């Protein structure tokens, strides 16, 4: 008797496990244009910068370049102390980095260089107090 009751209730219990159909515009709809994610953020991957944003970038001393795996156009502004030898981020306009290094033996002194521009990509170590504090890969 109990088994019969369970068999009758099983389909009723499973009826709540139905996957809803996607609403219109949620899935499979092509995207025709790139949009800005938020104020100050680059356009979505593959996007080109607007003429207005390009002029603003160049007016502030930057250049428009495609960077990262997505090759999104970004406003890149160079730092005045780019490439200068450093042992701490306080010595740079940007960060003090050890290019291509994401780690070094503990306690071993490291000399880095001041970040070239405000759009840092690739793998590098962040140098603080003469040692690599953290390794990071950005793309």
**Order of strands across the widest beta sheet?**
3-5-4-6-7
Number of helices: 2
The value of Rg in angstroms is: 26 Å
How many distinct beta strands? 7
| Tertiary shape | elongated
Question: What structural class is derived from the secondary structure elements?
Answer: alpha+beta
Percent of residues in helices comes to 10-25%
Pattern of helices and strands: HHEEEEEEE
Q: Name the beta content range.
A: 15-25%
- Residue ranges: pLDDT <50 for 5 or more in a row? 31-38
Distance between the termini: 63 Å
Q: What can you tell me about this protein's structure?
A:
Among the domains are: 35-77, no CATH class; 85-138, no CATH class. With 139 residues, the chain is of the alpha+beta class. Mean pLDDT is 78; it is low at 31-38. The relative contact order is 0.12. It has two helices and seven strands. Strands 3-5-4-6-7 form a five-stranded antiparallel sheet, with no helix packed on it. Strands 1-2 form a two-stranded antiparallel ribbon.
